[in-house]
Amino acid sequence: MKIILFALLFVSLGSRAELVEYQLRITESTLHINGVDAAAMLVNESYPGPVLRFREGDRARITVTNLTSEDSSVHWHGLLVPPEQDGVPYLSSLPIAPGATFVYEFPLRHAGTYWYHSHTDLQEQSGVHGAIVVEPRDEHIVYEHEAVLVLQDWTHEKPAQVLANLKKDGDYYALKKNSVISVLGYLQRDALSQWWRNRWVRMGGMDVSDVGYDAFLINGKTQQHLLTEAGPGDRVRLRVVNAGASTYFLLHSALSAFEVIAADGLDTEPVRVAEVLHAVAETYDILVTIPEEGAIELRASAQDGSGYASVFLGSGARRLATDMPAPDLYQSHAVHAGEHAHHHAMNHSARRLKYADLQNLDRQAYAGGADYREVELRLTGNMETYNWTFNDIPLSRADKILVQRGETVRFKFVNETMMHHPLHLHGHFFRVITGEGKGPFKHTVDVGPLQTVTIEFLANEEKDWFFHCHNLYHAKTGMARVIRYDDYRGDPALMAAKKRSTDIQDDDFYAAGELKLMNDFARIEAWSANNRHRFELHGDAYEYDETRLEANYLYRFGRWTQGLAGVEKESGEDAAARVGVRYLLPLLIEMDLFLTDEGDVEAEFETHVQLATRLQLHADYATEGHYHVGVEYRFDERISLEAAYTDVVDFSLGVKLRF
Fold first, then answer.
1. What would the pLDDT profile of 389-421 be if each residue is shown by its tens digit?
2. Sign of dihedral through CA atoms 377, 382, 386, 392?
3. Assigned fold of 363-499
4. pTM for the whole thing?
5. Looking at residue 105, what is its pLDDT?
């Protein structure tokens, strides 16, 4: 009898399911934003791409045609789909080649707000993204109006150039964003001792964000007015997707509070807050009640204080949201360890959403068992070389994390960096373990600077799934892993194709250089490096006659330590070979300690100190007697004026060029 009832129910549900089809075209295009035309990659010539709407229980058939000159792909972020449909190139399927078409087809197993984006190279930043809405079979929330808000960060530069700039210097965009941390800044805050402590532990100040963006947008616009037909007392459901490549947004409004009703697609018990720190790749559904008078502003402010985008809802005179104070980049490391770290960073006391506030309406839908296996993942990174990793190992050199079907797995994230990291697990919902106990189910979790966060998930899938930081530039430099079910051996065809791929890899080489042209002195420095290997060339010309050339190869063993082998040649002397180690000492002093081919032990030391926003002191000293002390005034990221004092020519004045 039970079998018959089950069969009847299955037939009944199946008869209501519909096949919903979409045709998506990925094209190369141009966007005009803030007065500048820049290259983009768009879906159906739209920025963001079109909203894909389904109903829970439907079957999606989405035909994606790649009309660009490079490979592409689409990942259905947050949706539980078969592994072959997940859209991760070389892991779930081959990428979509130029001119080719791929048909994604999968059932819509759960309702909510989700999104899609390319998982190829840096195309997500270029515009290949859009929202997904899966409406429930039975809606329990009452509202009169609805809008989808896709939050975006935009750069006029090509994303590949952005990554190359960050590889040159992790703080490359600090001047553009007015976020340079300096000794003068510490002095103005009477916090010089904190500067000293930071340097002693070999860390700079807080890194709120890496990229200097040219615009922040909602649905492709910096500002817009929506739902003018909404009247006083009307409830508006806003489905908010953070599709930014690396920007955390703070959601706040002209109202004293609004209700959060869903997180990462799954319904939660309503909770009233004034602000939501919206991590990259998360989605939140919020309810806003239109007041008696005026149109209210909902603002998405970039976490680093460098800009915002907003929408106005309702009619009448506009009621503006309050400006958010910029974060204090000089705060102590100890502040970050607390649960309300960003509260302190913003110097703001409004009621902000915490994960512990969120309780899913269905608290067992994706729950694991009482017994679990724990895997610790340290979140590690290096702003100097811009390598981001788990446990100091990038994806390209990491073992897969093996899981058994049916087990409950806990990931313990220990963030050893000064940045927020939005961590996303494909193919599963996980539960966030909060200080108050078991928190909400999500697919993306924010791990704040120097914080520890634990999640758990039921291993109820098969094959391979991607897990990564959803800061696009962090993922592309190595902060990612593959989760593999232990009865799967991988697809040989995908693995072979991966080796032939030209996609951006975390072990790609990047290059940079500096040229100093002084009145009686010149210096050139150039390097090329990936996450393990580094090649350097250094040349000095004193009075444009006496020269010193140096070439080095370095192999990175860890964040602080590199093996070194090189050769040095000075005017009138034979070339000398050497081998040793480069080590970053406390106080951020770089030391090269080496043994020469004549059996001598020598050392070189180098450091720099940011005195003010545009003023930097740098110095190097070698035990054989060479030294160089310079003070430079930086006009922009490429050009500086420098005054230097050396052991050979005393005082020199000139320019420094970076390339």
1. 999 999 999 999 999 999 999 999 999 998 999
2. negative
3. Immunoglobulin-like (2.60.40)
4. 0.93
5. 98
pLDDT of residue 326: 85
Nearest alpha-carbon partner for 246 in 153, 173, 157: 153
By C-alpha distance, which of 278, 250, 252 is closest to 263? 278
| 325-331 mean pLDDT | 83
Query: What fold, for 16-135?
Result: Immunoglobulin-like (2.60.40)
CATH class of 140-361: mainly beta
16-135 against 363-499: fold identical: yes
pLDDT at 362 over 70: yes
What the block records as the tokens of 193 is: 């001792």
Q: Which helix (H) or strand (E) holds 425?
A: strand 421-425
Hey, what CATH topology would domain 510-658 get? Answer: Porin (2.40.160)
Backbone angles phi, psi at 11, to 5 degrees: -65, -40
Residues 252-263 pLDDT 10s: 999 999 999 999
Q: Which residues contact 57 (CB under 8 A, 6 or more apart)?
A: 13, 16, 17, 107, 108, 137
Q: Are 512 and 659 in contact (CB under 8 A)?
A: yes
Burial of residue 332 (number of CB atoms within 10 Å: 0-12, 13-18, 19+)? middle
Task: Name the residue ranges covered by the structural domains of the chain.
Answer: 16-135, 140-361, 363-499, 510-658
